[in-house]
Design a protein that fits this description.
- The protein is mainly alpha-helical and about 60 residues long.
- It contains two helices and no strands.
- It has a domain of about 35 residues.
- It starts with 17 loop residues before the first helix and ends in a 7-residue tail after the last helix.
- The mean pLDDT is about 90.
Length: about 60
């Protein structure tokens, strides 16, 4: 089943700065993945890092 027909997937769209778009496209080319898979990887990495930062916040210097 194609992702567009899979009820577990949802389409998102955004306008981002050109340098980020180019870097993302290059990442996908380097990893030999499509944009959908690339975005899924990037978002998963981001939210994993964000969740980790919330569980283990850096101590503020005194």
């Amino acid at each position: 089943m194609a992702k567009k027909d899979d009820p577990n997937y949802e389409q998102i769209r955004a306008h981002v700065p050109r340098n980020l778009a180019r870097r993302f496209k290059q990442y996908c080319l380097d990893e030999d993945i499509d944009y959908s898979e690339g975005l899924e990887e990037v978002l998963a990495f981001f939210f994993t890092a964000l969740d980790g930062a919330k569980k283990n916040p850096l101590k503020k210097p005194r």
